Amino acid sequence: MEKIASFTIDHIKLEPGVYVSRTDSVGNSIVTTFDIRMTAPNREPVMNTAEMHAMEHLGATFLRNHKDFGSKIVYFGPMGCRTGFYLLLAGEYTSAQVVPLLTEMYEFIRDFQGDIPGACPKDCGNYLDMNLPMANWLARRFLENTLYSIDQAHLVYPE
Predict the structure, then answer these.
(1) Cα–Cα distance for residue pair 34/77, rounded to 1 Å
(2) pTM score above 0.70
(3) b/e code 137-146 from CB counts within 10 Å (16+ = b)
(4) Which among 38, 55, 101, 103 counts the fewest CB atoms within 10 Å?
(5) Distance CA 4, CA 33 (A)
(6) How big is the CA angle at 40 (ends 39 and 45), to the nearest 5 degrees?
């Protein structure tokens, strides 16, 4: 069986950044999948599920309500390895084109206080597993260490 594309990326060289993971044709449309890598795989601690879950709820809510991109959001959710998130957008985009959107989203997560959208038993299957203070902290860390000073090396997968 052939390796899937995401398993062919050299995770030893991979750094936090925003990468186009793949583009797929779906009918007459293109869907772009982004790898939003928040931690260095196998070199930094992975994120815990509680903060990732809070970030997922906040990020998905922000993205689906975005004035320009809301109608283009296909999916936003965590990677199983807990080193980042996937964002799927309808249309063909480069990593550089989504950095402003992701910067807005992470600033929203960094600054969010109050009740997390959808964090109640009626709306979520694991509503108690949320950690907003850590989500705020991780968003700030990603903004300061990656998004605010992102360069080409963190927008294209390493060779």
Answers:
(1) 11
(2) yes
(3) ebbeebbeeb
(4) 103
(5) 14
(6) 65
Alpha-carbon dihedral sign for residues 102, 109, 16, 126: negative
- Cα–Cα distance measured from residue 45 to residue 26, given in angstroms and rounded to the nearest whole number: 35
Distance CA(72)–CA(20), nearest Å, equals 16
Tokens at residue 72, please?
């283009």
Which residues fall within 8 angstroms of residue 100, CB to CB, at 6 or more apart?
none
In 3D, which of 57, 72, 66 has the Cα closest to residue 126?
Answer: 57
| Strand arrangement, sheet containing 73-78 | 17-26, 29-37, 84-90, 73-78
Taking only the tens place, the pLDDT of each residue in 86-101 is 999 999 999 999 999 9
In total, the chain counts a number of residues equal to 159
